[in-house]
Design goal:
Number of helices: 15
Strand content: 15-25%
Structural class: alpha+beta
Order of helices and strands: HHHEHHEEHEHEHEEEEEHEHEHHHHH
Distance between the termini: 33 Å
Number of strands: 12
Helix content: 55-70%
Largest sheet: 6 strands, mixed, barrel
Radius of gyration: 32 Å
Shape: elongated
Amino acid sequence: MYSFLESFRLAFNSIRAHAMRSVLTTLGILIGVAATIGVVAIGQGMSHAIGSQFEGLGAQNVTIRAETSRMDQLQGKINRLTLTDYELLKSRLSGVSNITPVLFVGNAFGQARYKNNETVTQVFGTTSAYQDVNNSYPQEGRFLTISDDRANRKICVIGSKLIEDLKLPTDPIGDYLEIGSEWFKIVGVMESRGEIFGFSQDNYIMIPVGAAAALNGWSQNQNVQISMTIDDLAKFEEVKAYARLLLRQSHGLKAGDADTFKIETAQQIGDTFEQIMNTLTVVMSGIVGISLLVGGIGIMNIMLVSVTERTREIGICKAVGAKRHHILLQFLIEAVVLSLFGGLLGVGFGYLIGFAIASAFPVFPDALVPWWAVTLALGFSIMVGVVFGIAPAAKAARLDPIEALRHE
């Protein structure tokens, strides 16, 4: 124990005696760890933001959307879900308390006009059940009603950003918007949801689904997305199986044919996005982490120089009784301390980089540095010190004391 502590003392004394060289030696480790922590901070911030968005929808929220396989795409086939599919599920599917279609007008984005002001916004048709499925409610006025659904009234509920973009009055209830050459009366303004990755979540107009179908020309190829709330999450697989059976029959699919749709819970969709972001974070961190190896090579190089410079000192130590393992331990500790010092500074700079990027660019959510990233970065720094310090330490330990004392 005493020899271990003495090795630490000698290693620290050596580092302090060559302070500038020690700082420059750790630069490679510092830069590598700082870049890795910065990448993880941004990636985990995005992953957390995505997860929070989907958590808001609730675990019982289920979405069904059309899915076209690569083979079908190559054959020019595009699968769709239709309003007929929605009506089928609404009338036959049990165990769900709310079910609604989402039908985008045109290519999802269109022009809306108020007096002389125009903007591009997302326009889609839905029903009165939409607010309960998505846990999103009006902050002013009212939402679409069952009566609006049945009558296909030309009314709309807008996201709060439209008030700013179209220079609408503070209370726009009762005013009219022009959408696709048709006039729609504003009956409600939805509560604000802010931005994610720099994109506003409040830039949209909702109209009755029948009115949206009319704006699309009542085409038979209109593709809808169907959302619903399952009453009992424990029965999700049962509800999913029956919904799948109904849709396969409706689409005339035979045994062995792939589904032309996909059924997912909000949690599953969120998990998929989080998995993608986590994978990207790991890949980016791995690429950036290669610079740690470069830093390790730098440490080994400096340590070899140090062994040569201190050959006579090593000889004196051995002459007064120091064993080979004492010399080995001293130089190994010196390499690990240098590497760990660079890792600690790198973690600090990584924090600053992540939070500075998140603050400078609104498109990025708040940076988040998990404890495991810090632990891994410091653990990897120590490992680099051990791996790249062992060769110089072994060289110092193998020196013959007589030859070392003769060294000039």
